[in-house]
Amino acid sequence: MKRELDDLLEILLTRRGISSDERERFLHPSYERDLHDPFLFSHMERATERILSGIARGEQIAIFGDYDADGVPGTAVLASWFRKVGAPARIYIPNRHTEDYGLSERALRELAGGSVTLLITVDCGISNAAEVALAKELGMDVIITDHHLPPEILPDAYAILNPKCDGENYPFKELSGAGVAFKFVQALVRCPDAPAVGGVNWEKWLLDLVAIATISDMVPLSGENRVLAYFGLSVLRQTRRPGLRALLNELRVNPAELTEDDIGYLIGPRINSASRMSHAMHAFTLLMTEDMREAQALARELEAQNRERKELVEVIMEHAHGLLDASTLPSLIVVGHGGWSLGVLGLAASRLVETYHRPVFVWGINEDGFMKGSCRSDGTVNVVELMRSVGEGGLFANYGGHREAGGFMVAEGREHELAERLIAAYELLKKPASLNGGIKTDCTLSLSDVTQDTYNIIIRLAPFGMGNEKPLFLFEGVEVAGVRNFGVKNAHVELLVRSATCPARGVVPAIGFFARRTVPHAHTLKECDWVDVVAHLDRSTYRSRPTLRLRLVDVSRVA
Hints:
Belongs to the RecJ family. The protein has about 550 residues and is of the alpha/beta class. About 40% of the residues lie in helices and about 20% in strands. The chain is globular. The mean pLDDT is about 95.
């Protein structure tokens, strides 16, 4: 059995391109060995000196953060250092519903009115050349910390920390916004002239925030991100933050059993729900509060907002399906309505990509009468490059984002022009979709392999995410021994499957969450059907009863 498990580990590492020389580092990350020196950032020394001199002179300092589950934790990372050294810093996170993404004239004038002379951005700012110029006119130095793709002309900031900038020396390019903020704090802690924080590697206690951001923002979990997420999960399981402890309690997550899935499916969406449904400062306050009563109230509030968010997405989805004719859909979808809630358009776009398997741009109307929206790729195009290619002629008031997801704003009444130009550009830029629906398994297992020993091998590769996908297995020729639909509107399905070749194993549960859209054939199965199953091996801790099960990705009948 040990030889078979060693073979499985070898297969999984090889499939992920982990060479024999890299395996020790991959399987056993080291905080001291595997993180790069933060002063490799070209502007890091300049940035740290400006922060420390500003504190010494008693300047008014502000931190301007993005409103998502990367920017909010990233802002908390930097704010935690300021709190620790006893230096006041004003926090400004824009209102997702009434303000643009990134720096704005409104925010800058408000901050200048409060005598702010040093402004630090988190997870934004790299595309705000005009706004940074205005900040300088208003008497502010700006330090940009960001990770988004930079434009051709960079802002004239005092310092820029962004690993993606051309000519930047920092060796790892895929940090999250919070990851860049963490490197900034890591550098500040090392400065000999910085106020003492107490203890070696004090900043490691900030990694719970970095893990939330790194996993929520779906940056590749390779290189330095793997190290940050690996140790961040460890810190999160023992977090000192009352807000995170209260949120985990509200979600009924046992901290000791917490995984990256709990961040991706539970914690991240709750942090995002604050900005989508009200204001991101509620989530920021949850992360920063030192009062357990306040933490519990905020956790309950975020959970209520998340329920409301789900309801709004369902309303948009039903309306969008009515607006789209599946038989005549173009290669790229542009859909919107003036009544749709701006805060949940990105979620609706992701759901539409799942349904229609093509890039989607979804828009609503903001208070200023602009079409403001979100877009998601199906993997065949970089949506930022796509928007850049049609940006000539002032179509977009602004746009930005990542390869897979972005945001945009267009003058009202130009929806037909937007669709026509995006579709035309997409036809020139698109790459072929992967074959077989993109499903690639690591290897074939039998139900007799569904054991704790096998699971222990798999989790040695954790945490999983983009760039280190959770292992996916094919189980051939298994019999359906039972089918059960459950959840709201019977959205989920549980199959009980067994194998004729190993009857002693008994039945194995196979769960498909939201199966009607994610595993559509599962709802058509009945007892005694023979099927091939593609699934992850999963460990459920429902009601504190650890159980091994399969998480369905695909299922098909066999003769």
